[in-house]
Amino acid sequence: MSKLCENIAYTHLAERFGTPLYVYSEQALTNAYQNYVNAFAGCQPLICYAVKANSNLSIIQHFAQLGCGFDTVSGGEIARVLAAGGTADKIIFSGVGKSIQEIAFALNAGIKCFNVESLPELDRINQVAEMMGQIAPISLRINPDVDAKTHPYISTGLKANKFGIAMADAERAYQYAAALPNLQIIGIDCHIGSQLLDLSPLVEACERMLALADKLAVQGIALQHIDLGGGVGIAYQNEQAPDLTAYAAAVAQMLAGRNLRLVLEPGRSLVGNAGTLLTRVEFVKQGEEKNFVIVDAAMNDLLRPALYQAYHHIENAEENGQPEMVADIVGPICETGDFFAQNREIAAAAGDLLLVRSAGAYGASMASNYNTRCRAAEVLVSGDTVREIRQRETFDDLIRHELACLG
Ligand SMILES: *Cc1c(COP(=O)(O)O)cnc(C)c1O
Fold it and tell me: Where does the record place the Orn/DAP/Arg decarboxylase 2 C-terminal domain (predicted)?
């Protein structure tokens, strides 16, 4: 008996669409979004899904239909949101390196807010807005200098990070922005890291942001919203995901009496546990010191283990009656870093279907064509029905742009 995604057997999906295959549960996406809406009901937040976690058009469309806004980090992501039916007035544009073209594109679309990360960026947005005869709505991303206690590659709120404007420079930066004629200051934001399992850094960041907002109000800079970024972690193994209700209660208490709309930018926590990567076992290889389960998915499909030594739970789609062994579960790519798990207990034989869990976030969106591998197909399951939401790439897709240049 195969394990199910909603009402559909994973083995059936693998046979129908091939492997590697990303499978998402629509109900899990809805539930994750609804959890935020319910927990923060008292604050009436604008929840802006961080598109980079999974930028598939159908997933964006699903969130748009639920009323969600979007946090984007490139012109391409803004274009994706618009193509999927999201509305510009719920789009936030973050990122440290916005180009002139991206700023013009975003202004033209009429996005809700630019989250600005430096003084030169303020100048650039002001200039582009002036050229276009527009006023750009902006927020400053402040680096609250709190330790998110997460993996160093996904910690963003410390002094040593490239992100945001230092707390010590924040008031001056707001004064500077206030003097630029084609900007309208509407908010303040932060994003201190990702996969946070402890709420205290998030709460502390909120406190520091609000203290700054109070000082700004005294100086005549009244903000409309506070954006606390994303970063709430999920359970990959046996971690306890933070309690959103407790987070919401702390935030609601801090916001009480202040006239500030709340914005949140969750990515991973909306999609991570809605997705599973299906992969077929090619070979089981008994090495001299180790066993290897060689599968048909690889680091080009799911980079997280190679990039951050991330843990993903891996299980057989069916009980196969095989004894468990300890093995490295690896892909076919010519890199030692191409593994999904090391020294993992697994019962697997050639031909078995394995489920790599919690692969909905930073999986497909970080995929590449390394080793000239076609990117996987993606499907969205809802009850008894399944919809292909990205076709498997073909070799022709991969070489198209080079063929055009072949002499
Ligand atoms: C990546 C990112 C997010 C989402 O982070 P998660 O950990 O996936 O929730 C939100 N805001 C900004 C600015 C980001 O860069």
Answer: 22-360
pLDDT band at 254 (very low <50, low <70, confident <90, very high): very high
- CA end-to-end span of the chain: 54
Buried/exposed code over 175-190 (b: 16+ C-beta within 10 A; e: otherwise): eebeebebbbbbbbbb
Closest CA to 303 of 274, 333, 281: 333
392 in a known ligand binding site: no
Do the beta carbons of residue 54 and residue 365 sit within 8 Å? yes
- What lies within 8 Å, CB to CB, of 208 at 6+ separation is 142, 144, 146, 167
Catalytic one among 68, 113, 334, 405? 334
Contact 63, 29 (CB under 8 A): yes
Q: Which residues pair with 225 in a beta bridge?
A: 187, 261
Ligand 1 atom closest to Cα of 269? 9
Ligand 1 pocket, CB under 6 A = 50, 52-53, 71, 73, 94, 191, 194, 229-231, 265-269
- Average pLDDT value for residue range 268-289: 96
Q: Please say whether the beta carbons of 263 and 187 come within 8 A.
A: yes
CA of 265 to the centre of ligand 1 (A): 6
Q: Hey, what domains does the chain have and what are their CATH numbers?
A: 4-22+272-403 (2.40.37.10), 95-264 (3.20.20.10)
Q: Is 364 in contact with 53 (CB distance < 8 Å)? A: no
pLDDT in tens, 143-166: 998 877 766 666 666 666 778 999
